[in-house]
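Need the bound structure for FNR, inputs here:
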Amino acid sequence: MSQPRTVAVIVGSLRKDSVTRKVARAIEALAPTNLRFEEVPIGDLPLYNQEYDETDPPAAYQAFRDRIRAADAVLFATPEYNRGLPGALKNAIDVGSRPYGHSAWNGKPAAVVSVSPGAIGAFGANHQLRQSLVFLNMPTLQHEAYVGNAFSLFSETGELVNEGTAGFLTAFAQTFADWVEKNAAT
Ligand code: FNR
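Answer from helper R.:
Posting the output first, comments after.
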């Protein structure tokens, strides 16, 4: 078996009961055992201000960047806000990308899953996010994952109860594991 790979999970929702996080956890549960998932919280990151990096960056920035650097890969799980990605997620991306020339994201293999209670599965957020990942030089899995009607997929206790979605997320997780293996730095 290949060596374990650490996947930093970035959840674009700050809600405690986030359905997007439930989908990320379901992927973790269905993934091959050589992937180890760790959510890196984004809710305590001050809004990015370039001046901070010219003087004394907030401790939360450094801690976040260190956790991304330590990971072999990144899974982005995002809801959609107004047909785009949530501000908190964009802020986290910006924080991780600086100071210029020292992006913590650089070269990390990534995957994107977008989640919505609606039918379109947060397609707009998914693709807006992909635009930044191109610029950040993150080899991103092509396997598309738009999880729609998301509130109907989980039981009251948060278990994934939709078999079709479980099958889809299992295939997604396996493809991601192969992608990480091919594209991880070492
Ligand atoms: C939304 N929501 C939403 N949903 C969607 O499919 N497309 C959209 O463009 C939007 N826009 C939007 C804007 C704002 C400001 C909010 C607060 C919400 C609904 C959104 O999908 C819903 O709140 C989800 O529950 C968010 O995901 P979490 O927090 O459950 O993970």
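Comments: The pocket of FNR is lined by residues 13, 15, 18-20, 79-83, 116-118, 122 (CB under 6 Å). The longest strand covers residues 5-11.
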